[in-house]
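User: Hand in any protein.

Assistant:
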Amino acid sequence: MSEKPLDAIFEKFLSGPKIFKDREVLRPTYVPDNLPHRNKEISRVGLTLATALKSGTPSNVFIYGKTGTGKTAVVRYVLKHLAEKCRELGVSTPDNVYLNCSTVNTNYRVLAHLCENLGGSVPFTGLPTDEVYSRFISMLDSGKRLMIIVLDEVDKLVDKDGDGVLYDLTRINHSVLRLARVSIIGISNNLKFKENLDPRVLSSLGEEELVFPPYVALELQDILRERARMGFLDGALEEPGVINLCAALAAREHGDARRALDLLRVAGEQAERLGMNGVNEDHVRMAQNILETDRVSEVVSTLPIQSKLVLYSIYLLDRNGSSKITTGRVYNVYSDLCKIVNLEILGQRRVSGLIAELDMLGIIVAKLKSEGRYGMTKKIRINVPAKQIKEILENDYHIKKTVNYVPPRS
């Protein structure tokens, strides 16, 4: 046996056909010089932030729309060009801070990152949040400056740790700062997120609101063609089949451009690993299977604990052969699980909302059905492999405490 078994793998890969010109442009995080079919949204965000060019404070902006509709790309695009224009005009360039609240998901971490952006140092944990806030104010207000704070997936922050830091940041200009100013851009994939905000926060955050519509298949084709031109070598794609299939599959999932780009990139990687000279529709189908598994893992593992408990309740009912999974039955099992892990039991209306969110994510299917004289009820079923849900959820510290629970029979 070779002492270096990976050498043969690496050599085979390196000597294989070359497909990619620049695979990084096929990642959703890449911000191109042109964003097709988002001119209206670019103009709206640009007009709001243009105030900074005259040393003004832009209004706070709340942007929402489904995943992959270009929200983050548009904001990054506008901020990049705003900074370039400020330098061109010789005016003060804003401090642009981008925070993804799926990872920076507590009030403490948000404030710590803001301090670090200003050159301060805050321990990962250990200080009172009020102390970190005071340090941030002290550093920020040491001179005349504008800080534009982008809170991407801001709903994840509020779900996990409340809207305390949002309240403070949206009111900071009026009651705390003397020299500096702050502008907030909140981005959310959750169209119902506003319902959970304190009305005072909502009124301050939503000075300007913008909804991003999903892309249709033809728009996704345009986006993919442009990225493919930059990302693949000439002749590496079977056209128009590969691009049309990627666009059609992504359009079926609410017009998700991220999904379309991931499909195209992973299809190329599959062809590359197989030593093929080009990418065809079979490689797109392979990519679809790979990404579906990855998507479920990412979505389920990052759910808030209350949503995980609701989903685990549905899984337990399904595992134990319940022929009819309804909101009422799910709520009863969920309540039992909350007691086991010693967590607050949410009201039935809120749990019904969490079920609707899981349905929107495609993890479950929840459909209203008529029960005749008994009225309407929601029938629920799992829409992804149950085994995968079990493996992901039972890795959670709280869920582990409930694995021996058996739902009562109806």
